[in-house]
């Protein structure tokens, strides 16, 4: 099974249809609107704009497990993201990324180590996972790693479809 086989809802209902990203590089990020790292939305949107035509997308996954920093309804989350940060990349339904209620998407992601060797539970909002076009999870980045950091950009460029 790959990440592209997991079922997850869209922010406004229906399916987010991860299968449509097969053949693309995808940066999966658990996002929150009321976090000190929320300004990372700007960098995430820049990545989306820079690489979308080359077979890349950011996939935002709202999560309210970290100090209740994503309390909004789907409508509020969508309005905040588009109005405040001009977000155009897709957002899924709000999910749990840790614990017994961990969404199957995150079950597929959390065993991949970051550069420091961390695996397992998501540490905070804006932890990032890069999925290669074949559905393999190829990189994990700590929440504090900026979307436009050299390490994130280099990994994306390395895994863009040929």
From TrEMBL:
Cited InterPro entries: Glutathione_peroxidase, GPX_AS, Thioredoxin-like_sf
KW Oxidoreductase (keyword) present: yes
Any GO BP: cellular response to oxidative stress
Keywords for this protein: Oxidoreductase, Peroxidase
MF term (GO), any: peroxidase activity
Keyword Flavoprotein: no
UniProt xrefs under SUPFAM superfamilies: Thioredoxin-like (SSF52833)
Matches recorded under CDD domains: GSH_Peroxidase (cd00340)
Catalytic residues identified in the record: 35
Family: Belongs to the glutathione peroxidase family.
Annotated protein name in UniProt: Glutathione peroxidase
Source organism per UniProt: Actinomadura namibiensis
UniProt lineage: Bacteria, Bacillati, Actinomycetota, Actinomycetes, Streptosporangiales
